[in-house]
From TrEMBL:
The active site is at residue 233. The lineage of its organism: Eukaryota, Metazoa, Ecdysozoa, Arthropoda, Hexapoda. Belongs to the SMP-30/CGR1 family. Its EC number is 3.1.1.17. Residues 1-18 form the signal peptide. It is an enzyme of class 3 (hydrolase). Residues 37-292 form the SMP-30/Gluconolactonase/LRE-like region domain. A divalent metal cation binds at residues 37, 181, 233. GO terms for biological process: L-ascorbic acid biosynthetic process. Its main location: cytoplasm. The keyword Calcium applies. This is Regucalcin. The keyword Calcium applies. Binds 1 divalent metal cation per subunit.
Length: 334
């Protein structure tokens, strides 16, 4: 009997130690933001880019040193940043409803911006929101209507696709939308996932990579039907085909199996307004998470002192896919 008890005790200790060693760790990477959003990982540079929408800033962190450098745009709300293929040091950023090329080591402030495209003409209160690049180098990005506090005008936005050939007239793919947000593709490029935040749904389209087209929209996961708190915001996908979704006003990142429409796991952040996620690190095993403190009341600011920070979740057991880069030949000389 004593031997059995010892064996049981040893087994319990092993289980406890295993759970401790595999439990994900959440680290605070960079503090001091207001509304961090739009993280983009550059494997070539071993660097993370992201924006602070309200502060009109673009940040870049060298992953090896942890050093963060910042570009102050000072021209309008900034919502997305992606790197440009074969043009080291050049990024594409959105400001208001315009897309610009910008040299990271170029002039300060908006003098570094070179206008590439503009959308939503005639809607001066609109702005760009989230965007992602597909494996052919095309940028899929969306807009949203006028914001008053945390309220957004309904059905004023659009999901666009822009590439090197249509910068003067980006293709319209979904209209109307209210808050165009997270985008992700399956590894085989047969499906594109999409979030229009106020619907509280994650939708999927059939995706034609060669033609750059989407069709047959349907919902694969409903926050309401699954009793999930908050709003779906930014999104990414791992190598197993599972989605990782930021829950704005939900304080969590959700891992979802889109094939089964099933919630697999969740990770709680020390901030209620979780805005977006991206895989990074040399092995793409670190999940970077952006958060916001915009709209928090005085008590919530005290309760969430790290809201508006960049976090990293390590040890999830998942790995991401490389982020694609915008293709625009001659971007450095544009």
């Amino acid at each position: 009997m004593a031997i059995i008890r010892i064996l049981v005790l040893i087994s319990l200790v092993k289980i406890i130690n295993a759970s401790r060693s595999t439990a994900p760790i959440i680290k605070t990477v960079h503090r001091g933001g207001t509304h961090f959003e739009g993280p983009h990982w550059s494997q070539e540079e071993n660097a993370l880019y992201w924006v602070d929408i309200m502060e009109q800033k673009v940040h870049r962190m060298d992953a090896q040193t942890g050093n963060v450098t910042t570009k102050q745009i000072g021209y309008g709300l900034v919502s997305l940043v992606v790197t440009v293929q074969d043009n080291p040091g050049t990024v594409l950023v959105s400001v208001r409803t315009e897309l610009y090329l910008m040299s990271w080591n170029g002039p300060a402030n908006d003098s570094a911006l070179r206008l590439l495209s503009i959308v939503d003409l005639g809607l001066p209160d609109n702005r760009c929101n989230d965007g992602k690049v597909d494996t052919k180098g095309r940028l899929w990005f969306g807009t949203m209507g006028k914001e008053v506090g945390t309220t957004v005008d309904k059905d004023q936005g659009t999901l666009y696709m822009v590439d090197q050939h249509n910068v003067l007239d980006p293709a319209v793919w979904v209209r109307p939308v209210t808050v165009s947000n997270g985008i992700a593709w399956t590894q085989d490029n047969k499906f594109m996932f999409y979030i229009d935040t106020p619907t509280r749904n994650i939708d999927v389209f059939n995706f034609n990579l060669e033609e750059g087209t989407i069709r047959n929209r349907r919902t694969i996961f409903s926050f309401e039907a699954n009793n999930v708190t908050g709003l779906p915001d930014g999104m990414t996908i791992d190598r197993d085909g599972n989605l990782w979704v930021a829950c704005y006003n939900g304080g969590k990142v959700k891992k979802i199996d889109p094939r089964a429409g099933k919630l697999l796991e969740q990770h709680k952040l020390p901030a209620s307004k979780v805005t977006s996620v991206v895989w990074g690190g040399h092995d793409l095993e670190t999940l970077y998470v952006t958060t916001s403190n915009f709209g928090l009341n005085a008590a919530e600011h005290i309760q969430q002192p790290n809201a508006g920070s960049l976090f990293a979740i390590e040890g999830t057991g998942a790995r991401g896919l490389p982020e694609n880069q915008f293709i625009y030949p001659g971007a450095a000389e544009y």
